[in-house]
Here is the input.
Amino acid sequence: MDLAKLFSRLKDGEPRALARALTLVENRAPETRELLSRVFSEHQDATIVGITGPPGVGKSTLTDGLAKLARARGNKVAVLAIDPTSPFTGGALLGDRARMDAVAHDPEVFVRSMATRGHVGGLSGAAFEALVLLEAAGKDFILVETVGAGQDEVEVAAAVDVTVVVLAPGLGDQLQASKAGLMEIASLVVVNKADRVGADLLAAEVHAHTDGKAVFETVALEGKGLEPLFDAIESSRGQRRLVEAWLRNVVREMLYERISDSKWKNAVRGIEERRVTPYEAADALLKELE
Amino acid sequence: MDLAKLFSRLKDGEPRALARALTLVENRAPETRELLSRVFSEHQDATIVGITGPPGVGKSTLTDGLAKLARARGNKVAVLAIDPTSPFTGGALLGDRARMDAVAHDPEVFVRSMATRGHVGGLSGAAFEALVLLEAAGKDFILVETVGAGQDEVEVAAAVDVTVVVLAPGLGDQLQASKAGLMEIASLVVVNKADRVGADLLAAEVHAHTDGKAVFETVALEGKGLEPLFDAIESSRGQRRLVEAWLRNVVREMLYERISDSKWKNAVRGIEERRVTPYEAADALLKELE
Here is the structure.
């Protein structure tokens, strides 16, 4: 593969080059680092927005609505959908095609699904590096959609500029409970499906329980309420942490690369046979790095 | 704190000592390592069962049912509920008390909720070390309940002896979609709420789509179908990976301890100012470890 050519096409915003580069990143291909070292110096200044929340609240519809709005306002838009996925096959659950349809066939909105995989390290470098690639390809409004309330969401929230947590009325106790964990990573909270019973109450509850965090009511399916939300996203851009998240992942990946499989196995055996504690074994592994 | 005393009470299976030790582990208290180095040589051979699946399928009820059954069969039982939680307060969403009630006030079943927190590294050492403590305290049947389909579940599945994935009929497209990612970490699959319409169909679908993986139908609320599931759990115990998961976490934690905050900050600044690539920065951080 000619990386210089790929890089140059990527910079020109060619969708096929971008798709190919994202595949390299997702597969942790050896070329990835050279490509990213080039791309890195092209780093731009997109608004990166995390969209998260429990299943069934309408995150995808809201994401698509915001993507359309961003496009209408003259942005170059990308959607990165992080799917919970197989740790073994690594295949994304909702294919790019399915998502593409949802974004109203607008060829100007670049959409990509990405598997979180079973890597040590959650989103592992892949998602962060995908964001860097999307920026380098000239996208200036990037939506990252994640599902749930786990570690992946926390990592994304720590890396993006604005985190939007989406809720909806009437999802039952178990889902309501998971709000608490999500609330604290939220820059903005959305109560979607706001035409349903209980929406105002839910919005008032969230507002009260978060010391007055801004809550937006939307009906994403009908495009209602998206404009004020979009304005709030643009004005609430916080400090970017993407570089730090990326660096931590690279450090971890490099560390694991430098410890051979046989060393891991020997260390595990030593612990299992009670010859060393995990702390002694870890210390020895780190000492041997040189 | 007198660690020798705590350790001795823990070995005797005293619930208060165990609770205290788990708090130390959860808070990553400095004493943790000394305690675990002692506990470590007491490592026993419990059956550790992961219970996971999307929200609303009845995981907690099933976990409680299996706990009761394990107890009835003469096991010393513990339940560790990993809650999605605030990355900042680290508080568990469902308190131990709420869970305690659900396990039918049986004082012989030790129940603990644990927050995943916002640590780098998902479950971070805490959950793995909690399992080691529970074993050291003489528990021989340990249920670990997690929610969702993200990295946390993958990490738990990689560490426990048997992973049970719980589904239920009628949860809609979005939840059904998340099945795919969960299926591959499953040792056994349960279709709970099997008295509802669509249960047999769902079980048949799962069976067909997983190349004939064993699927058990249960109505956990009525205790139906738990006995054959329990037997299958006992006979499908796979290879334990707990030590490896624990070691990887310790290595990561030790690595991060050895890189000072100011070094991280300098490296991030260097990247942001385009003086170094993330790969060069990571390489320098690892080289400086000595």
